[in-house]
Structures are given as C-alpha cells and as structure tokens.
Design goal:
24% strand, 28% helix, alpha+beta, 3 strands
Length: 68
C-alpha cells in the first residue's frame, strides 16, 4: 500500500484542469508537475456554477487535510 501524500496539500489549476497536489518532493515519479504527488485531478467544463462547486469542494478537502 502506498504511503499517504504528505501535507500541506494545495490546489492548482491550469486550462481546463484542476488538481490537488502534495508538497514539492512528494511525487511518486519524476513525471509529475513540479515533482509533486497529484492526489486527484478533475476537468473543468466552462460551466460557471459547476466549476465553482468543484473549486469549492477542492478547497474543503485541502482545508480538512491541512487542518485549517
């Protein structure tokens, strides 16, 4: 079983993708963005309400994990 992704988690967004990632150096491999382990990645669809809800949910997840 893989080790848990270290904290702090952060949210990143680029183009039509949004993802949660661990801190620098936590990547499982060298091919991940900025050598950070990606926890989950979702597509954004250009629907303002749906994308805002996705961003808010990602915020809730990172707050819970980071103990904020």
């Amino acid at each position: 079983m893989a080790e848990p992704t270290p904290r702090p988690w952060s949210i990143r967004q680029e183009g039509e993708s949004i993802w949660i990632e661990g801190p620098r150096g936590s990547a499982a491999g060298d091919g991940l963005p900025a050598n950070r382990r990606v926890v989950c990645e979702f597509g954004l669809y250009g629907d303002e309400d749906l994308d805002a809800e996705t961003e808010a949910n990602f915020g809730l997840m990172t707050e819970a994990v980071n103990g904020e």
